[in-house]
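Quick note —
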Amino acid sequence: MDLMTPAPLASATTAPLKVAVILASNREGRFAPVIADWFLSRTADRPDIETDLIDVADLVLPYTLSRRPGPEVTAQLAKVSPRLAAADAFVVVTPEYNHSFPAPLKNLIDWHHAEWQAKPVAFVSYGGVSGGLRAVEHLRQVFAELHAVSIRDTVSFHNAGALFDDDRRHRDPAAVDAAAKTLLDQLVWWGQALREAKSVRPYGD
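Predicted structure written out below.
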């Protein structure tokens, strides 16, 4: 290539996928950061992915929804709405509370609509015996209503607290590392496919 010739711009299929990783728990003493750190470490060596961690504990969104939010709510939304809109895909890191997912996550979801549409969403769950999978099944229904595409394969941590050592390292990572690779491969496939499709024809047209 001539040195004076500009380098070609990254196409919809070659640019890294922008993945918003949503940390769904704000409970005191939560285990969520351990799971999130583990997951982000699995994405660190993948040039096809760029991550943005969105923590519900950093947001103060009221549970009263409004079509015309006041200045304080607008300021809170400004912290997160553009990041959701810019994402090509989502990974939700969620525990299971009473057979479902945390209320702050539902609130974040309900404050937005178009930001989720025609994008893939994957799930990393944790909990006791069920490993958070009942929360994931509820989330699939919610995201389907929002025109998002849920990824079939998940990463699930059963009795999560016993699986990590004091340095937050998984004691036997082979199986979950393989599951994370499968999840990310599927997420990238769907994310690139949907991004390319929307570049040709915006969703809903």
